[in-house]
Write a structure and sequence with these properties.
It is built from nine helices and 13 strands. It is of the alpha+beta class and 342 residues long. It folds into two domains: 184 residues, no CATH class; 81 residues, Pdz3 Domain, CATH 2.30.42.10. β9 and β10 form a beta hairpin. The longest helix has 32 residues. It is elongated, with a radius of gyration of 26 Å.
Amino acid sequence: MGYIYALLGLALIILVHEWGHYLAAKKNGIVVERFGIGMGPTIKIGKFEAHWYRDGTEFCWCWIPLGGFCQMKGEDDEKQGDGTYNSASPLAKFWVAFSGPFANFVTAFVILFVIFSFIGNPLETQVHGLMDGYPAAEAGILPGDRIIGVNETLSDEWSKLQPLISENADELIHLTISRNGEDVNLDIIPKNDSGIGMLGIMIGPSNEPVGILRAVKMSLDMMWNFFTELLKFVGKAITGQLGGVKVTGPVGIIKMAGESANSSSLAFLFFIAFLSLNLGMFNLFPIPPLDGGKIVFAFYEGVTKKRVSKKVELAVSTVGFILLIGMLLFVTYKDIVGLFAG
């Protein structure tokens, strides 16, 4: 069932991406001839055909469940005149190209904001339960408490505090606890359990929603951190310093999405948010036929007042498309081999 949710999630972020292009094109007076999810021919089973028409646009679902498209009038030929992509201003072309990735950024932000504002803050941990025969209950630790300090060390990361407890079996330690927005100080002696200090608490993700302003800040910070990490990854890829880092293709992505869906709804939401963010950033790379390549062409036209020859644009885009498809097939092959090997 998780893989079905994964496919639906992937289809959703692709739909959002292409819908961003569609709205920008319509806003700038460009005719959208076809709008589809998937690749290849339109799905047709008997007399049923998965397409319909609205406002002069054909909407369709295609057989190959990868990608999507927003086909604009004149985008792939030399057509000129009202409603054509070629006759649009450089600024309009920029907005049409940028709106797809921007829609993905907005989607990622909304998902993260909803998680932090209404579900909780899984980046922080809290006490979910107490164990009998251990000192936590006697010391006054309660479910819902967040341990934010051990002795002089203060941190929101449990991974930094837990070793300080483990290392002090039978030794008095000082805990700083966040409870209902206030700090509580407790002294406690961890129980010696085979040489390891144990409080007797069960730790899990925080289910306490944060305020709206903090949720906005946390969402933007997380997106920015992801963006900088992606740039570092690209830099390492260009300089050949990736080492043993594994690059995943569509099969691997669906596998990971399915596993996250089977794990928990929260993990799946995080995965979809970062996949949407990834899709938006990837499409901004200045490589034809990605949106970043179209932005470069629009920038060139705006500066030089000369439109790039359609033959040159299509030739460069074709080369870029072949390279991207080649890379896609390679990582897909690696994913399938890894799937069977696993």
